[in-house]
Write a structure and sequence with these properties.
The protein is α+β, with helices and mostly antiparallel strands and about 500 residues long. The protein folds into four domains: about 90 residues, Winged helix-like DNA-binding domain superfamily/Winged helix DNA-binding domain (Arc Repressor Mutant, subunit A); about 140 residues, GntR ligand-binding domain-like (Four Helix Bundle (Hemerythrin (Met), subunit A)); about 170 residues, Beta-Lactamase (2-Layer Sandwich), CATH 3.30.450.20; about 55 residues, no CATH class. The chain contains 17 helices and twelve strands. The strands form three sheets. The chain has a six-stranded antiparallel beta sheet with strand order 5-4-3-8-7-6, sandwiched between helices. A four-stranded antiparallel beta sheet has the order 10-9-12-11. Strands 1-2 form a two-stranded antiparallel ribbon. Helix 6 packs antiparallel against helix 9 and helix 6 runs antiparallel to helix 12. The longest helix is centred in the middle third of the chain and has 32 residues. The radius of gyration is 26 Å and the shape is globular. The N and C termini lie far apart (about 55 Å). The N terminus is likely disordered.
Length: about 500
């Protein structure tokens, strides 16, 4: 059996692997939709019977039935009765494209750039390793795959690129790299390959495949990695262009900013609104705190903060992903360190909306995974006397695993003592949705940066969030810089 057939079987088997955890009917539904998007199950294909699906997924038959009902409601599955009956996939190539477009529209620029970075880390290493390990038969196999692809056809080009990438990983002779390449392809690959509806991009992919085979033939790992990076950049730019063209924003109205100063005002107004909500929650908590009997326990503190934090997640109008109170060490009686913090769970909007969950972190200072939050900027900023502080953008690996900015304010009790810090996390993705449609009306390249010139977002799709502006422009000092009020942020026209 050829490797490609084996890999296809492996990918299909992953679709029907046992599930774990709550919300299983939603998980079955989502996994089946993913299989349709990826083309692992095609139009007209009959699914296993409900009892067999239940056995494969490790769930009850009623759970599978609920998932199939939902898929039928989305027009992805039809069910017929009788001897030759069953459940059949009804998604056409056009229907799969629409599903993929809907999924792509939910990714921000920051997320797509980060995705390309992750794919580059794996695919680039795969290419460099393959350059050292490829045999003549490996190279011949890669050439035959490239020759078999019809680059005049979108579906052929997309599927051929998927196979080509996995076969390069196989040439690297690393089971872990193959497994990771497969996982990333199944989860994210189609988002970047969606742009191959464009003939120019398909031609570029064809050239990249030929260039990569040539680099592997010459055992040049540096060039092989560079080819992969350049191709991923082109695919990312194409995905961003499509997402931009099909995205809409409630804030993109006729009165949207048309000058750089107007854009700066929009930034200030947006952050002022978030700080306003945070300040009201902080004051309400301080009032509640004064009425609590001491000593204060974790349960008591959490009960006092939860409703306020969840209200901030609602009032944040999708900007705020996390909110709560972080206690000064020693303030809580039964825990030396404690975070009363809640995080938005977006889930899959095509499946369900999940309620906010309380963040669980290691609070035992003796644990090797403990992190002293009083050393972090968002704490130090207000602990040093500032009335409010903006930290970021940064990767919040302690809480949300998102690229965020954190807004914090100090909390004081009646005696003037600071029992802790109130704060919210705002995602860069949400800020993109709020600002970019308005910024785009300028028709120029402008970039929002923090005090260290780290990029928050940019109208230029090639400039990734988190990079330094100096990385993207030869002379960023030459650009016009407009401060965003007293915030540690500025807009740069360059």
């Amino acid at each position: 059996m050829s490797r490609s057939l084996g890999l296809t079987a492996e990918a299909r088997s992953a679709v029907f692997a046992p599930l774990a955890g709550p919300g299983r009917s939603e998980q079955v539904e989502q996994r089946m939709r993913e299989a349709i998007v990826l083309g692992l199950v095609g139009h007209g294909e009959r699914l296993p019977r409900e009892t067999e699906l239940a056995r494969q997924f490790g769930v009850a038959v009623s759970t599978v039935r609920e998932a199939l009902d939902a898929l039928r409601g989305q027009g992805l599955v039809r069910t017929t009765r009788g001897r030759d009956g069953g459940s059949f996939i009804t998604s056409s190539a056009e229907g799969q494209r629409e599903l993929l477009a809907a999924r792509l529209s939910r990714f921000s620029r920051a997320q797509l750039h980060d995705l390309a970075l992750q794919l580059g880390a794996i695919s680039g290493t795969v290419a460099a390793t393959a350059a050292a390990r490829a045999t003549s038969s490996d190279l011949e196999n890669l050439r035959s795959i490239t020759q078999s692809i019809d680059f005049g056809n979108e579906v052929s080009a997309r599927r051929g690129e998927a196979l080509f990438r996995v076969e390069v990983a196989a040439v690297a002779q690393s089971p872990r790299l193959v497994a990771e390449e497969l996982r990333l392809q199944a989860e994210y690959g189609p988002l970047l390959w969606f742009g191959m509806r464009d003939q120019a991009l398909r031609d570029a992919v064809h050239r990249a495949q030929l260039a990569l085979v040539e680099a592997l033939s010459g055992r040049d790992g540096v060039v092989a990695r560079a080819v992969v990076d350049e191709q991923l950049s082109a695919l990312t730019a194409s995905a961003i262009s499509f997402s931009d063209a099909h995205s809409t924003s409630a804030d993109d109205t006729a009165g949207a900013p048309i000058t750089l100063d107007d854009c700066a005002s929009l930034v200030v107004d947006t952050f002022d609104a978030v700080f306003g909500t945070l300040g009201r929650a902080r004051d309400a908590f301080a009032t509640t705190l004064a009425s609590l009997a001491h000593p204060i326990t974790k349960a008591t503190l959490d009960g006092s903060v939860r409703a306020l934090a969840e209200a901030e997640l609602v009032d944040g109008a999708q900007l705020v992903i996390g909110a709560g109170f972080v206690a000064t060490p020693g303030f809580v009686d039964d825990a030396a360190w404690h975070l009363a913090w809640w995080v938005r769970q977006a889930g899959d909007p095509l499946v369900q909306r999940l309620p906010p969950r309380q963040l669980a972190v290691v609070e035992d200072p003796e644990s090797e995974f403990f992190r002293d939050y009083t050393r972090l900027e968002w704490w130090r900023g207000v602990a040093s006397g500032e009335a409010s502080h903006v930290t970021g953008p940064y990767v919040d690996y302690l809480c949300t695993d998102e690229f965020i900015l954190t807004l914090t304010m100090p909390v004081f009790d009646a005696s003037g003592t600071q029992p802790g810090v109130a704060g919210v996390d705002v995602t860069v993705s949400a800020l993109e949705a709020r600002f970019l449609p308005a910024f785009g009306r300028l028709g120029e390249r402008i970039t929002l940066v923090n005090a260290q010139s780290r990029v928050v977002l940019s109208t230029d799709p090639a400039i990734a969030a988190g990079t330094l502006l100096v990385e993207n422009t030869a002379s960023p000092e030459d650009g016009e810089r407009v401060p965003c009020g007293t915030l540690p942020l500025a807009l740069v026209r360059h």
